[in-house]
Amino acid sequence: MTTTSKELGLNKIGLTDIDRIIRNLPIEGIIEDIILHKEGKMGMNGAIMVDTGRYTGRSPKDKYFVEEDSSCDNLWWGPVNPKIDESIFDELLAKVVKYYNHADDSNTYIFDGFAGADPKYRMNVRLIAKKAWQAHFVHNMFMRPEKDELIDFEPDFTIINASDVFNRKFEEYGMNSKTFIIFHLGKRIAIIGGTEYGGEMKKGIFSVMNYYLPLKGVLAMHCSANVDKNGDNPAIFFGLSGTGKTTLSTDPERPLIGDDEHGWSDDGIFNFEGGCYAKVIDLNPEHEPDIYNAIRHGALLENVVYDERTRVADFSDRSKTENTRVSYPLNFIKNSVYSQGKPAMSGHPKTIIFLTCDAYGVLPPVAKLTPEQAMYHFISGYTAKVAGTERGITEPVATFSPCFGGPFLTLHPLKYAELLRAKMKEHDVPAYVVNTGWIGANANSGAKRISLPITREIIHAILDGSIAESEFIPDPYFDFDVPTSLGDIDPKLLIPENAWASKAEYHKTAIELVKKFRENFRKYDTGDSVVRNAGPSLNS
């Protein structure tokens, strides 16, 4: 759909001289342009494959928020949300606008759509890009409007992607690099320069939703969600990258609501997105059939290594990045509520699952939490990085991200934690922690990570309630309740101390991890001794 700057109101932000504006181009047209402009190639099953250049992941140190009157008293200022002066934003916005206005004989792609499946809370989003594959990405990831919904469309927030524009004066401005991702919440505009990575647009809108929704009493969550085949018994899965959040919620037995971002309102939970953005490193069609089968015409693969002649992808090849990805619309998951013609929403969750990949081998495969322990572990947001995943990491490194989404929180973490506690209490929702990492040894020992089939069995036992038939004992350090038996799973595996060959080594490693938990929690201590005391103890 072609249109003009004036018709879309782009002149309000200075975009006045753009000749070739293409709005909400159908996916077939976008794919044609990607190939025509040599931005990518067609690969397996008709999926498009692109490389995102130098940046194959987000650039969190290059993200800033403008210090301005409407938001300065609300924002969680600090390393996650560093301040930037409005004059710098204005100068870089002018540079971005000039780039668009003077880009002769090239298309400008505009996607107008929605973030939020619940019409009561959804946000009208506009994403502007010069690259066809970036238009493909946002077409996949956000909720696509019907034709009549575009007639009087007014954006609530606009992201202008100028990935070819660099900030040459970054040192003068005290910024980190030539790359910039800057949000002006007062003007409801964000600008991106110097990075092609599509995830900046997706997570940019998530950061914005994380700002506006909690101020309305809606909990914004970095989690996946699914329901049973009757659309009941909804569950939400919190977890940082690499813990299995997407894989475990994309379950053949349970229709998917969404794999990454949701809100929890007074009416229930709802997906923010219209698509999924799944990791494909080591993708296994046997263990992850829904994700594998979603790689087809309309899907967009990022940074995968493939055979130039056959176009066959090698999902085990990490030579470009560990963060190989695929984006696809929600209806590509056959077993999703969206593909069943239903909105990506449900009632209030019946279960909360905190996923962690514990590379220390100390946490049990599953444990039940008290409400206070749930609060503690939500604020902690623990997982661990393992050797080889990042340069310089040679042994397990504990990683804590408040609310399992620290990089995307725009308000103080306690705002989200307090909302979670209130909603859990109101709706009597139980919580479990599930370790998808190592048991009985740390990741450097040569031991294998707990298998996906075992983790799925644990998840199913939680969701069908059969875990309640188990006998539980308290963990000696974390004090949460650990089942002594569960289905066909080896009972020795369920109790970490029993799984370790050396009891002394287990206790030494557990004490090390407990100290890291306690040190991290000091940053977010609410002064609530009940929650503080719900954390791990050294009094084993």
Concise synopsis of the structure shown:
This protein has 540 residues and is an alpha/beta fold. It contains 14 helices and 29 strands. The protein has a 9-stranded mixed beta sheet, with helices on both faces. Strands 12, 13, 14, 15, 16, 22, 23, 24 and 27 form a 9-stranded mixed beta sheet that branches.
Structural classification: alpha/beta
- Uncertain parts: 387-393
Strand order of the largest sheet: 1-2-7-8-9-11-10-5-6
Query: Which sheet architecture does the biggest sheet show?
Result: 9 strands, mixed
Mean pLDDT over the residues: 93
Count of DSSP-assigned helices: 14
Helix content: 10-25%
Radius of gyration: 23 Å
Shape: globular
| Terminal-residue CA separation | 66 Å
Number of strands: 29
Strand fraction: 15-25%
Question: Can you offer a commentary on this structure?
Answer:
The chain is an alpha/beta fold. The strands form six sheets. A nine-stranded mixed beta sheet has the order 1-2-7-8-9-11-10-5-6, sandwiched between helices. Strands 12, 13, 14, 15, 16, 22, 23, 24 and 27 form a nine-stranded mixed beta sheet that branches. It has a five-stranded mixed beta sheet with strand order 3-4-18-21-17, with helices on one face. A hairpin with a 6-residue loop joins strand 19 (305-306) and strand 20. The protein is globular, with a radius of gyration of 23 Å. The protein starts with a strand and ends in an 8-residue tail after the last helix. Mean pLDDT is 93; it is low at 387-393.
